[in-house]
């Protein structure tokens, strides 16, 4: 085996540079602030049992992993063999560490996966002390993963639950998350005489004051952004509104536009401007610049007064009302429509409803990272069993909505290594304010969810998969997605943790018409918000229509560098009629106010 090459050892600041008096003073301040923060935390909902709370998830993790441990102990011989493997790895690691301390070059026992940013600091490899903790962690977490993989007798749901909580625990126990085993934190602590930890405790206290029901760890500098000033700035007008949405029409940028306009239905779980961040990242600006008349729904941030609004209301008073307004404004009979995430699930439901009634309001439909069949919905299924939904419904019944912090907490838990712990380290251990980042500002700008609507969505789609099974009725109409015959453009994203690509593909098979399936690189957000000039990710298209699985489709598809946006625009041009004169916003409906409107600015 070739010898491992190590970077030159980086040196920590010498201990004599530490100001003992200042260090003691800062530690006293840290203990005082820490006590105050702990007292406040104990009184918060975070520490109490409740749907999607930290206390509940810790309990669930403990119970699940305890059950897994008992499963392992039920086969003593196999468990003893596994323990022996782990102990031999520890012994090899300790032996290598001693050899390194004497100046010998040795190959690592374990190395991080490519792209694991937790261990990017050079000292994780150059310094034997930090290298030991890194490798011990990697060895242990890999051993636990292998143990779970080789455990027999687990049903699929139990295995999925154990894998999820094992990842949560493994992410939390990384040595990068602790002051004494993270080289960057140690350097900063010595260099500042622990002022970084004092600053971090202040940032934690500030986050707790700003948070709602559950602690929201700041992911970005929220003071750097403002909706309407440097986010959601594509020119347009609000041309219609009711109590659940505002309809925005964007100003044309081309002399002529396509005859058939485009209506976009974003998810109500987040705010619409994910599709209109900065001009360089705006899918809306891009498609307006291609010569389309574009409308988008901006959902209200519901309060107690809208608790009764149902999934059917979001269809009737949302999509169908918006579509009628677009048709009246533009004078056309049929329009094109786009649904993103849960907005796409609502759109698919609406299309099935219209098909059952023999009504044709739409010319084509585009789905972005949308699930219609929830059989393979991933880890979110772990949060929708009957017991959890009963508790969630009880919580929502008290106030009429679900606070956005709870859903944000769930989404962050799906990727704790990327969406939780880096910010805890940066903010609370290094004592640094997070950097300004538009995407993360949007991610923290969460919305509430009307109780009746959200309960229906979780139960009927995630828990019972009624639409795909043909068991859903809306407004007294039985729904069958196979009856939807209009042309469909379906985009999945390869690393999606919210709408897994396999799940999106399964849903695409339910439509009865022509479906152009496309797979984008990256995940649920970055795979969609992927401007052409960045050339950051790739996409796959033109796979076999007869493919029965995503793997079969991908094996026959062609990979293209860059963004899927131009590919979609070309498809959309083919389904948008002839060129006609440009349309100014509100020519027939009138203007309510300038875009981005007031609904999107309401905070949770």
Structure description:
It is a single chain. Helices cover 45% and strands 12% of the residues. It folds into two domains: 15-210, no CATH class; 236-403 and 448-601, Alpha/Beta hydrolase fold, catalytic domain (Rossmann fold, 3-Layer(aba) Sandwich). The radius of gyration is 26 Å and the shape is globular. Helix 1 runs parallel beside helix 8 (195-210), helix 10 crosses helix 17 (451-463) and helix 12 packs antiparallel against helix 17. It has helices at residues 20-43, 54-73, 76-101, 123-126, 128-150, 156-172, 183-192, 195-210, 283-289, 311-330, 342-357, 386-399, 404-414, 416-419, 421-429, 438-444, 451-463, 466-469, 501-508, 550-556, 565-574, and strands spanning 236-241, 245-250, 256-258, 262-265, 294-299, 335-340, 362-368, 401-402, 449-450, 473-474, 477-478, 488-493, 515-520, 538-541, 558-561, 579-581, 593-594. It is built from 21 helices and 17 strands. The protein has an eleven-stranded mixed beta sheet with strand order 15-14-13-12-7-6-4-5-2-1-17, sandwiched between helices. The chain has a two-stranded antiparallel ribbon with strand order 3-16. The protein is of the alpha/beta class.
Describe the main β-sheet briefly. Answer: 11 strands, mixed
- How many domains make up the coordinates? 2
Helix coverage percent:
40-55%
The CATH architecture of the largest domain can be given as 3-Layer(aba) Sandwich
Q: Provide the low-confidence segments as ranges.
A: 1-10
CATH level-4 homologous superfamily of the largest domain: Alpha/Beta hydrolase fold, catalytic domain
Specify the CATH class of the largest domain: Alpha Beta
Distance between the termini: 57 Å
Strand order of the largest sheet: 15-14-13-12-7-6-4-5-2-1-17
Q: Tell me the β content.
A: 5-15%
Subcellular location: Cytoplasm
InterPro entries: AB_hydrolase_fold, PHA/PHB_synthase, PHA_synth_I, PhaC_N
Organism: Hyphomicrobium album
Pfam families: PhaC_N
